[in-house]
């Protein structure tokens, strides 16, 4: 038994014809291959890189895993590659500020690269309307360019500057390809540690960055697919895939010689080392096949495969590359390299089949086949170490979501990765209204919408809640806000607000004069979109007095009022106006503030005209009067002939009037004075003796309280 398996790199190349497992260890100057195990699929459980029979593929993985575990101990985490079936590529850039940092270390650079990859994933996810419509997983990436302060640079490691940037080309495969791969791993008791694409794995070990300035095509010809990567101008510029590979060659042998598929595959492989092989066809007849026989039978299939590869290379590269590297088991097909050179019209020596012996700084623990089919599994393990693309898996509304584990991931990251538009999850704000106030547009917003309802593992959470492997997220969109509702009073704030002013110690609330769409409006008036408001605010002494129903002349000017609808004019003395505790009077244009106290004082102590003064202009007798004696003392009784109203409110006749006031009168019905009226004008002293009773008399005769009285009558009250 070797050292604990946690120190090893375990990789699987799950191909259409076989599963290759590899144990790799990192050394000071490279990598050391400890072991390689290959298991064939007994049935055609995969076609064109797609798993069709998960239990069968998982069984092959278990056989590989079991053999390796018997030597290296338990294996739990594995790095794998996927074939480029239905491949999609997306370019994305990411930048980061370097201010305050000395340089980017390897960890920071990896974070920058994967942030760009995540941005590419979001771009692709946003093309779909919902998580269930989002059918692609990222399976790897390559660096297109590094930039330092806006200029391209070969490497950002330990570089200093103000900003660093990276552009990547990220590759994506259909969800069905990746999900079936994950299902097979889970069934075999393995966790996905890192996922990449077969041509990415191969190109990382065969074409280092120093060689990528050359225009080279790398073609990984497996059993089901031929995956292609293009390098040029120092980077990997494109990826592609042809759904045709070694199995089509095997099928050509099967068709030509009536062999079942496993027998045809065996013939194809044995002819790599032998010139003549025996095979039994489906009729039980044994045949002896020579290399030339098989090569001739393969010729149409090879021609078709190389034509498809040529078309894909020209589509990706727009021209023939300077050279082509072939890897994968299918690359060893006789005459394939020569035929591809012919179709690309490049010299035959510019196309080469590369095996694992072409990988630099790689050693082996034991004698190992160096064939091209092992380049990809070795590349998978090395890519998992040098450019890991690790995933964190959660579910969102029961749908699986896998994210790059590049930082502390949140529920928001899962939603973005799953194709949710976060803006759509938040409740929309209610519709606002816009009105004009004194010519200026004013917006009244609706209420804000509520955030989405997030639940993680059955507990309330938030968009920024951190995630762990296997978390279950439930998301419900927030509620939309209410449309704006506003009344005139809602706009009467600050300088436009009503004021509480004290006039001669009497509190008066003075509201602004408001017109809505040129019509007077109350503070409770509801506003509509595009209403136009004109608000006249009580800013000065004169404004306040006018809106409070007062008007104070600045000099001795006549006061003009109306009496029962008729205009009346009466002279009034001038007045001084004082604000708060100021000793000096103020002018009418003096500005007032909420809570100010105004005091109006007439000149030389003269009184202002009253309601009585105004009525005296039209009526000679405003009161009825009689004089009687009460217990030998004269008493004068008076009674108003009129009930008076000032500006619509009942008032006494001694109430002062101001310019612009409105007075109405009602003549009272004539009623005689009665005995009890005298008690309102005199003081009555009740004796201490409770046994004494009051006795009243009129002109010497005992009488009652309701008895009418006249001028000159003698009234008496005694206690007996």
Automatic annotation (TrEMBL):
CDD domains attached to this UniProt entry: ASKHA_NBD_PilM-like
Annotated Pfam families: FtsA
Residues in SHS2 domain copies: 9-206
GO BP, one annotated term: cell division
Record key words, sorted: Cell cycle, Cell division
SMART domains recorded: FtsA
Annotated Gene3D superfamilies: 3.30.1490.300, 3.30.420.40
SUPFAM superfamilies: Actin-like ATPase domain (SSF53067)
PANTHER family, alphabetized: CELL DIVISION PROTEIN FTSA-RELATED (PTHR32432), ETHANOLAMINE UTILIZATION PROTEIN EUTJ (PTHR32432:SF3)
Protein name: Cell division protein FtsA
């Amino acid at each position: 038994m070797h050292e604990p398996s946690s120190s090893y790199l375990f990789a699987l190349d799950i191909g259409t014809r076989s599963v290759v497992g590899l144990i790799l260890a990192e050394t000071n100057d490279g990598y050391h291959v400890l072991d390689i195990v290959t298991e064939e699929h007994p049935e055609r459980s995969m076609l064109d890189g797609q798993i069709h029979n998960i239990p069968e593929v998982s069984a092959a993985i278990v056989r590989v895993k079991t053999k390796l575990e018997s030597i290296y101990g338990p294996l739990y985490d594995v790095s794998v590659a996927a074939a480029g079936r239905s491949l999609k590529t997306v370019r994305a850039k990411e930048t980061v500020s370097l201010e305050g940092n000395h340089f980017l270390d390897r960890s920071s650079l990896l974070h920058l690269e994967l942030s760009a990859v995540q941005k590419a994933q979001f771009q692709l996810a946003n093309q779909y309307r919902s998580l269930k419509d989002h059918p692609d997983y990222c399976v790897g990436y390559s660096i297109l360019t590094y930039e330092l302060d806006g200029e391209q640079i070969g490497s950002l490691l330990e570089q200093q500057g103000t900003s660093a940037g990276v552009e990547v080309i990220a590759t994506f495969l259909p969800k069905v390809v990746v999900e079936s791969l994950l299902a097979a791993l889970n069934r075999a008791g393995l966790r996905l540690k890192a996922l990449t694409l077969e041509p990415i794995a191969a190109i990382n070990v065969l074409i280092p960055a120093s060689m990528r300035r050359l225009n080279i095509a790398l073609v990984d010809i497996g059993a089901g697919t031929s995956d292609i990567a293009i390098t040029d101008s120092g980077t990997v510029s494109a990826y592609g895939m042809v759904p045709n590979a070694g199995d089509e060659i095997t099928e050509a042998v099967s068709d030509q010689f009536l062999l079942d598929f496993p027998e045809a595959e065996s013939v194809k492989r044995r002819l790599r080392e032998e010139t003549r092989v025996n095979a039994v066809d489906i009729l039980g007849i044994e045949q002896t096949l020579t290399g030339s026989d098989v090569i001739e039978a393969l010729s149409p299939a090879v021609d078709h495969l190389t034509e498809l590869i040529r078309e894909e290379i020209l589509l990706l590269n727009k021209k023939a590359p300077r050279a082509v590297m072939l890897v994968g088991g299918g690359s060893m097909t006789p005459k394939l390299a020569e035929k591809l050179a012919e179709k690309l019209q490049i010299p035959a020596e510019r196309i080469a089949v590369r095996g694992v012996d072409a990988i630099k700084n790689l050693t082996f623990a034991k004698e190992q086949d160096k064939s091209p089919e092992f380049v990809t599994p070795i590349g998978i393990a090395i890519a998992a170490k040098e450019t890991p693309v690790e995933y964190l898996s959660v579910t969102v509304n029961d749908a699986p979501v896998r994210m790059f584990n590049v930082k502390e991931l949140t529920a928001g990251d899962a939603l973005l990765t799953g194709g949710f538009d976060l803006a759509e999850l938040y409740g929309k704000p209610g519709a606002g209204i816009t009105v004009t106030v004194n010519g200026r547009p004013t917006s009244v917003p609706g209420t804000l919408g509520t955030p989405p309802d997030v639940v993680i593992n059955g507990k309330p959470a938030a968009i920024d809640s951190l995630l762990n492997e296997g978390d279950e997220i439930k998301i419900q969109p927030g509620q939309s806000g209410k449309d704006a509702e506003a009344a005139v009073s809602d706009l009467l704030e600050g300088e436009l607000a009503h004021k509480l002013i004290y006039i001669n110690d009497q509190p008066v609330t003075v509201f602004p004069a408001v017109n809505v769409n040129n019509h007077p409006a109350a503070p409770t008036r509801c506003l509509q979109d595009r209403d136009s408001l004109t608000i006249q605010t009580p800013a000065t002494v004169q404004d306040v007095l006018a809106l409070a129903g007062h008007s104070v002349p600045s000099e001795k000017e006549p006061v003009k009022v109306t009496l029962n609808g008729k205009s009346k004019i009466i002279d009034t003395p001038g007045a001084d106006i004082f604000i708060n505790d100021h000793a000096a009077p103020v002018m009418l244009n003096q500005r007032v503030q909420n809570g100010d106290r105004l005091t109006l004082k007439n000149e030389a102590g003269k009184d202002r005209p009253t309601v009585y003064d105004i009525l005296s202009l039209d009526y000679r007798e405003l009161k009825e009067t009689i004089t009687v004696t009460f217990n030998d003392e004269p008493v004068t009784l008076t009674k108003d002939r009129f009930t008076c109203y000032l500006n619509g409110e009942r008032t006494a006749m001694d109430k002062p009037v101001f310019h612009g006031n409105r007075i109405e009168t009602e003549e009272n019905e004539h009623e005689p004075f009665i005995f009890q009226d005298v008690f309102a004008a005199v003081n009555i002293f009740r004796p201490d003796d409770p046994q004494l009773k009051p006795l009243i008399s009129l002109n010497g005769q005992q009488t009652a309280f309701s008895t009418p009285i006249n001028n000159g009558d003698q009234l008496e009250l005694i206690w007996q």
